[in-house]
Amino acid sequence: MPFDEAEVSRHVPQPAAIFGNKTTRVGVIGLGYVGLPLALLFSRRGLVTTGFDIDASKIEKLARGESYIRHIPNSAIRDSLDSQRFHPTHRYEELRHADAVLICVPTPLDAHREPDLSFVRATAEAIRPYLRPGQLIVLESTTYPGTTEEVVLPILERSGLRCPVLPYASASATADSHSTDVVDFFLAFSPEREDPGNQQFRTHEIPKIIGGVNGPSAAAAAALYGQVFDRTLVVSSARTAEMTKLLENIYRCVNIALVNELKMLCQHMAIDIWEVIEAAKTKPFGFTAFYPGPGLGGHCIPIDPFYLTWKAREYDFPTRFIELAGEINTAMPAYVVDSLAQALNRRKQCLQDARILVLGVSYKKDIDDLRESPSLRIMRLLEQRGASVDYNDPYFPRLHKMREYDFTHLSSVELTARTLESYDAVVISTDHSIYDYEFITRHARLVVDARNATRNVTHHRQKIVRC
Question: Which fold has domain 5-236?
């Protein structure tokens, strides 16, 4: 049933009044690598925070004070629970008690490499029955420009409440008291900027980008995040904030594609690309070092370019540069497998029926995150070419079933001298710090190094093939 607009306008408070103090109640939907650190941050800063997730096993672990993310210690969960400022639940009806609801759900690609917003839509539908006047909804999930206005807003407005898309000029203009008369609830986009495993920057130290669908929404989000982040930056619209996140990750994607292509060229020219990069980065200006690898992993960098190229087609605008970078990076796992096959051929061996050990299945070193890991693609390609594949990863004793991969028949093998000697080749796909590369090289018959992890190995270098 629609709300009475006049009644709503009398009960919608000023954004800074409700979202700029410690009485604000926060709800975080999606307690993964983004949502859980964010929920814990709000609770540590004194705000009562409810974490929502449809995965019952996550909620049960959190309720016991247990973390399922390696870089988040159990003590962080227990401290928040003991303070009674953090409450994990799967009951969405508790959303009615939250003043602000932050959406941190996955935005993957579908089988055709097009945006899959099913999690975002489902979450907006779950929020809608409990939406109330003066509530703030913020989408943090990485997506294409226009998602907040074109996908989330229409679903929420089916509640009968309105949040009109209005232009605003600056953060100072967002507090105009007259503008709140037309806004029933607040809606903004604020992209996550988590980098799992990065010890240099903690969540609250990374500047928070904020874009509202109107001025009051931007002011509300700025007041909320300003309580827990060291710095906030309000941009002119939700679309601008959405594009900012894409630019950050596409910048990395394009530059990684460049060094991946140069790596392949340098191998033909008998030049060490790693030495080239180390030399180039001594220039104190105009150069940022990026490094080649077996492909891109993580939720953002392998996916974001395809979100933008998909949206660009709506405007009949080809994004050839971005698409080419995506193609190069996507092809890298196959390049690693081809390099392995050639190395075996030089030893008068065939990849088919060869026993291969893949070292590292997480998408980058020293974390327990499998999302879009190139190691998984390498393993599947090896199986498709008839090889027998095993893996070792200290962070994954066993592999669970995923959207695209099912390696549940495998478990991490013990990394002993006898184990290494039993394989025809070892592929270093993720360069975990815990690995002893001297030991690995000494006992392996052949080492295919896709991460330059063996750069400091001094003995048995004839066994090493870098790719």
Answer: Rossmann fold (3.40.50)
